[in-house]
Amino acid sequence: MLAYKAYCFDLDGTVYRGKMGIESAVQFIHHLQRQGIEPYYLTNNSSKTRETLQQLLKSVGIEAPLHHIYSSSLATAKYVATICKNNKVNVVGEAGIRTALLEEGLEITEEQSDVLVMGIDRQISYEKLVKASAYIQNGAKLIGTNEDIKFPNENGFAPGNGSFVHLVSNVAGVTPLFIGKPSPVMLQIIADEHQFKKEEMVMIGDNYDTDILCGIHFGCDTIHVNTGVTPTEIVKQQAQLPTYCVENLIELLK
């Protein structure tokens, strides 16, 4: 395998599953750190702040600098700040997306606004979905932090943010805009902020439709690991293949 300067890891299904670390990934990251290479972490999970993600990584044995952690919330907030006319937004989501929007100078309101942002909300209710659908039908632009239909946990898979965004979009009859992977926005932010060329970067993930396509859309190399959402046999049937396919990241150390 080629040597890279920026190893960009997905989190859920790649580095950990729920609250349990994936040992092969943890060992590989420790190996990189011993070589003086500090990885980057990209997650479509919009519920957590950078600080919370840093603590979660620490709980599975990984010390990660705060400025090496990127989420769909951060990328979404940066985008929304550029299109919001009056700096007010409607939001469905948890602390991660709410904090990111506030840090971009936006105001979260319950009144009708021009933009509705949807991130994962584990306290989702029928009432919240009804209100979100009304915002869109009254003219708000629907922006989802990510399109993940499901994500792995300790017991299998749980509904992802994309499931709820598509529900609202179907009710309102609109097409949502998604910012998280497979959009290459987060990889582009890393390249811009840390001055990397595309050939110096590699995207590592378990989900072909988000992680691998994110790297392909961006134009960097990709590594698919068979530890989460998309089985290797399904990946190998795709028209656009990852640069590498491994069962787990320990294979790369042999």
TrEMBL record:
User: Which coenzyme or cofactor does it need?
Assistant: Mg(2+)
Annotated InterPro entries: HAD-like_sf (IPR036412), HAD-SF_hydro_IIA (IPR006357), HAD-SF_hydro_IIA_hyp1 (IPR006354), HAD_sf (IPR023214)
Which key words are in the record?
A: Hydrolase, Magnesium, Metal-binding
GO molecular function per UniProt: hydrolase activity
Q: Name one Pfam family in it.
A: Hydrolase_6
Q: Which SUPFAM superfamilies match?
A: HAD-like
* Gene3D superfamilies (UniProt xref): HAD superfamily/HAD-like (3.40.50.1000)
Q: Does the keyword Hydrolase apply?
A: yes
Q: Which residues form the signal peptide?
A: none
Family under the similarity heading: Belongs to the HAD-like hydrolase superfamily. NagD family.
NCBIfam families from the UniProt entry: HAD-SF-IIA (TIGR01460), HAD-SF-IIA-hyp2 (TIGR01457)
**PANTHER family in the record:** 4-NITROPHENYLPHOSPHATASE-RELATED (PTHR19288), HALOACID DEHALOGENASE-LIKE HYDROLASE DOMAIN-CONTAINING PROTEIN 2 (PTHR19288:SF46)
- State the name under which the record lists this protein: TIGR01457 family HAD-type hydrolase
Organism field = Solibacillus faecavium
